[in-house]
Amino acid sequence: MNSDTFQAQPDQAITEALRLLGKRRLSLAIHDSCFPRDSAEDIGRGSPYSNGARAFFAFARSLGFDGIQLGPQGQTGRENPSPYDATLFSRNSLNLDLGALADTVSSDDDSPGLLDRSLLDQLVAGCPDQSHFRTQHTYAYDACSIALDDIYRHFCNARELGDPAVAGLAAGLVAFSAREQDWLEADALYHALATEYNGLHHRDWPETDEGCPDRELYQHAPERDAYCASRRARLQEHFTQATERYRLGQFLLQRQHMALRGYLQQLGLLVYGDLQVGISSCDDWSRSSCYLQGYYMGAPPSRTNPAGQPWGYGVLDPEQYLDASGRPGPAMRLLLTRVGRLVQEFDGLRIDHPHGLVCPWVYASDDPDPYHAVQNGARLFSSPNLADKPGLARYAIARPDQLNTEVPRHADNWVRSLDDAQLDRYAVLMDAIVNGVLSHGGAHEDILCEVLSTLPYPLARAIARHGLGRFRVTQKADLDNPADVYRSENAAPADWIMVGNHDTPSIWRLARRWVNEGNAPQQAAYLAGKLRPGTDRDDFAQEIAGNRCKLVHAKVADIFASPAEQVMVFFSDLLGIEDDYNQPGVPGPDNWTLRVPPDYAARYTQSLQQGQVLNLPCVLVLALQARGAAFCQAHQALLQRLRELAGWWVVDRPL
Prior knowledge:
The chain has 655 residues and is an alpha/beta fold. The chain is 42% helix and 7% strand. The longest helix has 28 residues, at 240-267. It is globular. Belongs to the disproportionating enzyme family.
């Protein structure tokens, strides 16, 4: 499917409706692996750089979306497809647009013609699932490695023969390698060594005869500096081809990413990156000196995850935030480098779990039971006098008299007050991110804070000082609690509101459960009070309670009628897909594998007027009608146009 299949711009009625509802952004959230690909290039995993993705972007823009939220784009491991465990700097080679690299060399030197088309055909034909409804991660990982071998072989042969078709590519590779040396050299060496050690985690790499094992080449005692530097140099020479192959892959990905940026700008789509809180084994190997020893970061027990989540992620070492003169230390420089790169390559960024930057929940890394450890963890900067965590006292910012010891340690009000100097210390990393965005020409509204069910007092203060909002996931709302943070009426203009995200059930499956389990009437009564507070409220509630599709649309209309000025929709909620993308903390073969179906456009068109996919004109009519009879009377022509576009269900509100 070509990217020009769809009318690139939405109907003007959509744009006007969003303006009247006070919505500045309407973003579609989708991770890289979820994109559809053309059948001739699909090896079992999506890519935002493929032709199939470009068509999907145009489809999204035609519906009214003006932003795309991507997930982390780092290199994942062969056995773990989670993008939140991926590399901080290296891009995922599985994102390479192999179809473009297999095409005939063109005059614009876009680096095609490097991959044998017959080999690509074999890799496509060998995919174990030709339906392409689910990512085949392991197969795609191996297929991409085979393809990259072929790409590198063709590149080397052409370069050796002095082929002018690759001269520009070769020169660009040299410049790219020099410019990105700080992260690229270590990442390339890690992946060469990981291959040498048969894919083992670096913690399991064997001892060497010369003393310092390869697993400690970047995390060693000072007396081993000379040996480790010499060993790294010898390894770089030994793995010359493997590391150059890696650098070539990263360079091609960089070129394809910047080409995508240009295409999205033409469509009128902003694209947001993801500043993940986790780190990969690769980064743990080369950058663990920036992280606190003896502790991991996780998520404490909460209403949505009562057992907590032992992520096993590193925690930036507070003693390396700033040096003695107040300038950025190693940990701060690492964060600022990441932020600078994201701001240069995206229009904004999502801060994943900002708690991890302001008030991280930490637990002992040597506890053999990670769930016991995380359930008995503590806030790094809010634990001045815990008998079971005496080692945290040195990092405490809050004083004992500022703590509410009547509540659990992870409670939002564990810390009750802070003075301005204390807030400065809690917020030092958050301030650095905001200042980094602003210094690169960005704005506060380009920063998305993924604050979910918990908002500890220090974090609330840290984001409030910059006027940043939070996430409101309305499917989680407690309808018996008027103060619940997920209820749409409690959203603020700076917030991002959504019915679900990549960690929640599809709203379509959830609505089916509400109907089947008898919870739909409560949901319907709440939504009717928001959307149809007039004389027909009860009739409206009864109508949507008995129809799953209408209930979904009312639930989505509620977020458009809210005070929040930014709306986000996860791709499965748009397309009427009931399967989950990820179940947090539940490992399984289907996690992180959901994709946009190859025939999504036909499915969407066929299902639109039955309400079995998200009918945005219908949603907008419902949200506009919530403004009251006088508003509807003043905008009859717009509402009529939206009804025509919807073609399903929407009825007139009594005037």
